[in-house]
Amino acid sequence: MAKLLSKRNGLIFVLVVALIMPFIVPNDYILHVLALVCIWSISVYGINIFTGYTGNLSLAHIGFFAIGAYTLGLLTVKAGWNFWLAFLAAGVLSIILGFLVGLISLRTNGHFFAIYTMCVGYIIYLIIDKWDSLTGGVRGLIGIPGPASIGPITFESLTSQYYLLLFFLILTIFITKRIVHSLLGRTFIAIRNSEELAQTIGISTKKNQLLAFVISCFFAAIAGALYASFVRFIGPEIGGIFLGFEMLIYLVIGGLGTLSGPIIGTLLIVFLTQSLQFMQEYKMLLFGPILLIIVIFYPNGIVGAIEGIKRKTRQKRKKSGPNKGYSGIEEVS
Amino acid sequence: MALKVENLSKTFGGLQAVNQVDLEVKKGDIHAVIGPNGAGKSTFFNLISGFHPPTSGKITFNDHDITKMPPNKIAKLGIARTFQTTNLFEDATVLDNVIIGNRLRTKSGLWDAIFRTKREKREEKESLEKAYEALDFVELTELANEPIANISQEQKKRVAFALALATDPELVLLDEPAAGVNPDETEGISALIQKMADSGLTVCLIEHKMSMIMSLADRIMVLNQGKRIAEGTPDEIKNNPVVIEAYLGSDEDESAEVTNL
Amino acid sequence: MDLFFQQLLNGLSNGSVYSLVALGLTMVFGILHVPNFAQGAFYMIGAYVTLTVMTLFGIPYWIAMFISMLAIAFLAVLSERIIFHPLRKAEALHQMMGAIGILLFLVAFAQVIWGPNYQQMSSPYGNAIGLFGITVTQQRLIVIVATVIIMLILHLFLTRTMIGAAIVAMAQNREGAYLVGINANMVAMLTFAISGILAAAAATLASPINLVFPGMGDLVIMKAFVIIIIGGMGSIPGAIIAGYILGIVESFGATYISGDYKDIIAFVLLVIILSVKPTGLFPGRVN
After folding, report:
1. Which domain, by its residues, includes B131?
2. Domain tally for chain B?
3. What is the ipTM of this complex?
4. Is residue B191 part of a domain?
5. Per-residue burial over A208-220, b = 16 or more CB atoms within 10 Å of its CB, e = otherwise
6. Which residues of chain B approach chain A closer than 8 Å at the C-beta?
7. Torsion-angle region of residue B146: left (phi > 0), alpha (psi -120 to 50) or beta?
């Protein structure tokens, strides 16, 4: 019981810190970076739901990020839609497209799936890049409005935008947590462990993978739409495969298939990049090898490594008294 | 008849892996499938459990035609199976591995997960109860919270049984349940299989350990090169010259076992 | 008609480059079941090594190419030893992440060493010549001929030497190869070395026509993946044929359909193929 309390206290502490951030950061720049961390994290949670929990690598994820961003951008700038309506449209469109892409791509397996989705991602990128009359091509899309006010709440200041993004991130984490700790989440994990075994115990693997894929595309598009409204300018490079790789790195370093991995990985690497300003362009010189070390020695990332240590100490302690009761899926997260 | 297989064939490329096999398994029986290596036993199981579509023939389970059904639907009708390798999730606990077995009897989806609906809570509770029931059956309750990585091979086999049982099956297909388990522990596995049959389950198993089969099985089918060469009670099989012939012409250890009976 | 032959020739030379890169990719896949995303980075580094050796030391084109082949073979073997060997029993996902890690590191490395700008590689075959009534740059002919020679050498190596036969055996049946006592480590290293050599050769041949820059391998590797799926993962003749086909289709597509969307052809083709046949055109190859 004490452990549960301490875990809860830890969460409350992190939440409080996140909430008072605008008042303790020395300058707006850091708040700006934190806001970006919120956006990237939402997208990385999306990758995690599919790649982390069901075990398939989708390289089309970044394409859906771009679809979200461009849907919001085009609908507000060119069609003059209300911001929140366009935001909703971005989410709905990602669900429809994610469903269609997933329906076809999930018929392929393993490496074929990764390469298939890589192709889909690249097609999305190329369409954005070349369809000049619609997307503005390489010049990009400018003048995207920020989030429209909701009743008395406006999002004009950086602080208010930070809170808005934080709200979406917390919502994303909350939904992920609920999914992971549910029967549905257990189903995803069973599929990741062994598709064959999952099928023999009556699980429709394709149906569940499709659901995870659509959820993941939805998170990607929401993150993309938030990005567009926060940065106010988007270009085709936000659909590029290298940005996709970068998000994957956040996830793998933080911890694939863990609840806190995406936020920890993103926060850590984004701030490491910021503090190493001089090597912005060459950051992969550092993160490439870090990724390799993690993949080889800590396949479940930082969070997985910490969980492993915890589990070992718990086992040692357990020898003094049996640990009864329903442990839940925390054991594997 | 719980399971009825008629004229079942499967070809891979030009190879006839299973060739016009008939089989009838009576409810509550322990029915063994034996044969030399490469006789098509595992393929036969894969056909019944829906992993491969048969080339021709018909499979009926409790009057349902399951010939072309996918594995997950077959599981829902009440056929469970275990594999030679257990495939369990090593990082998770025994209990976590078994809880998912009841998933096919639950309906909670994304909505239930996000809003933790009454249905989700009820079904989680049911799954937990079901898992403990299954673990109780295989006598592993005290290891419920142990990670799979920490338990023995024989215990892993029992967890795999528990997972199969948690799907609430009527028929279980066991693919070499005693493989990789030492002789002492084989006794325990045998007793467990007997216990399954006693509790009303129909059991179909592939096994190489002849002494185990002979004492356990009600009926035995012998496959050789994809064909059914004999079917009958253990005594009939033991004295069947065709069977002895088939075994003599193959793997030495097994033929020694069969002739020593 | 002139335009037709012009495009055919362009297609053949582009296809040659695709084939070489795809060959290395498909061999590594056949033996180690790793989709090596880093192959594109090997290709790019290969071009830079040739360029540096040529400009810095004034070494002739062909010798520079040979040095580059050795260097990239070494780089490929090194990544096999340090990264892929420790990951040989890991999940497919982690192997792919390993390959991506190498790719990202090498691209950043090239940016630091050689800068982000486009550079030109001069070859002794810059002149255009008349051939059957059309004008072609000599380099395009060189690419086509050199590729055929390299493929012939590879063919001889795989069919006439013990170690070559071991590679083929292992690509066909991994477990069987272990049983007959093939040194799996040796074969893995050698396969990576070959893929490195092919990448460096392809890059050196293509660079005088295209340009040298850190991102030059990105599209090539993505198309190489398309090629090896079309040709059947692990199939050597499949990779060669599909490589040429893609080169030619792109070349004609750019002329007769749209130059803007030329690069999309490969990906749309693959998406269509896998949508119709999820296991690829030659499913027997993957196990």
Report:
1. 80-168
2. 2
3. 0.89
4. no
5. bbbbbbbbbbbbb
6. 49, 51, 70-73, 75-76, 80-81, 83, 87-89, 91-93, 95-96, 99-101, 103-104, 106, 108-110, 112-116, 120, 123-124, 127-128, 145, 147, 150, 163-164, 166-167
7. beta
Q: Chain C: give the shortest CA distance to residue A42, in Å.
A: 21
Give the CA diameter of chain B.
65
List, for residues A254-289, the tens digit of each pLDDT value. Answer: 999 999 999 999 999 998 888 877 777 788 888 899
The domains found in chain A, sorted by start residue, are 28-318 (1.10.3470)
Q: Which of C28, C104, C225 best probes binding to A when mutated, by most A CB atoms within 10 angstroms?
A: C104
Contact A333, A180 (CB under 8 A): yes
Chain A hits for B116, CB-CB cut-off 8 Å, are 178, 182
A331 closest CB neighbour out of B80, B93, B166: B93
Domain CATH for C76? 1.10.3470
> Are the Cβ atoms of B76 and A186 closer than 8 angstroms?
no
Is C274 touching A (CB cutoff 8 A)? yes
Q: Does some domain include residue B1?
A: yes
DSSP H or E stretch at residue C129: strand C128-131
Residues B61 and B15 in one domain: yes
CATH of the domain at B226: 3.40.50.300
Question: Looking at the 3D structure of chain C, how many domains does it have?
Answer: 1
> How many CB atoms neighbour CB B241 within 10 A?
8
Q: Across the interface, which of C103, C112, C274 has its CB nearest the CB of A285?
A: C112
pLDDT confidence bin for A324, thresholds 50/70/90? very low
A53: tokens are 């929990």
Locate tokens 């950043």: which residue?
A: C108
Q: For residue C132, what are the domain limits?
A: 2-285
pLDDT in tens, chain C (287 residues): 677 888 888 899 999 999 999 999 999 988 888 889 999 999 999 999 999 999 999 899 999 999 999 999 999 999 999 999 999 888 888 999 999 999 999 999 999 999 888 988 887 777 777 766 677 788 888 888 899 999 999 999 988 888 888 888 777 766 666 666 677 788 889 999 999 999 999 999 999 888 899 989 988 999 999 998 888 877 888 889 999 999 999 888 887 777 777 788 888 888 888 888 777 776 554 33
Whether residue B194 is contained in a domain is answered as no
